[in-house]
Each structure stands twice: as C-alpha cells, then as structure tokens.
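subagent[fold] <- orchestrator: predict structure for attached chain, return tokens only, no commentary.
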Amino acid sequence: MKLHELRPAEGSRRPRKRVGHGIAAGQGKTAGRGTKGQRARSGVGIPPYFEGGQLPLVRRLPFARGVGFRDPWRVSFAAVNLERLSGFPAGSVVTPQELADAGIIRGTDRLVVVLGRGELTQPLTVRAHRFSAAARAKIEAAGGSAESLPWQRGGRRTR
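subagent[fold] -> orchestrator:
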C-alpha cells in the first residue's frame, strides 16, 4: 500500500450539503432555516442558557451561583483512622512526616486529625494536631501515647 492509495473507509465521508441552490435541490429558498426569526438570520449565536428573553434560571436562583459561602476561618484536616496505623511496628513514633512517607496522607502541608475507626493492638506514640476522644482512648488503651502538635488557624503549623 502506498500513500496515494489511502482512502477513507467506505461510507465514513459524506458530501457537503449545498443549501440554497434552488427548490429542486430540496434545501432551496430558506435553506433549511425556516422562515424569519433569530435562527434564520446569519451570524446566529445563541448561548445554551439563553431562554428567549425570559429571566434565565442562573439569574433567578441567586444562591445557586458560584461556589457559595466560603468560610475564611475553615481549618482543613487530613483524617487518619486508627486502622491505618496498624501497619507501624510496636513502639514506633508516628508523626505527620511518617504518615506521608507511608502514603497514608498526601503531604505534610495539612493538619492531621486521628479518628477512632478500627482497633490498635501495638503501643504507638502518635503525634498529630488533633485526636478524637475515641482515638485517644484506644491509643492509650493499647499502651501508647497521643501527643498533640501545636497548630494555628489558617492551616499552618506553628514552629
């Protein structure tokens, strides 16, 4: 096969419809655009949300617009459940850096909260920015300790 022998697949290319070439062509006179009206004119460009001059839905629902209320004081935590900590050896110190290295959290730029889902069988020293009451109780019941790291609002840790 040579380049000059290449052809598109049979039936994949259709000839262009030549509109406005007389009544016999089937697409003459108004060329398939109907009679008069905005869509019959050239340069028609109606956006999909246009509702014919009626007040659009996006303007009738003022609270549905954009992202809504964004709390400037919101603190975002990376949640870690106790069942994820069971892979650490007994007696080890679990810090946000250790969690990031193990792939449990994405990075150390967010604050870490330890939640109480699951069981902990080995004693661990867990250092995080926040603990749920159930998580703290389970860590201490397993013989470990839960140490809170300092943090401030805005998501940044204090040094």
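orchestrator: received. Logging for downstream: The CA atoms of residues 20 and 28 lie 4 Å apart. The beta strands are 77-81, 93-94, 111-115, 125-128, 130-131, 145-148.
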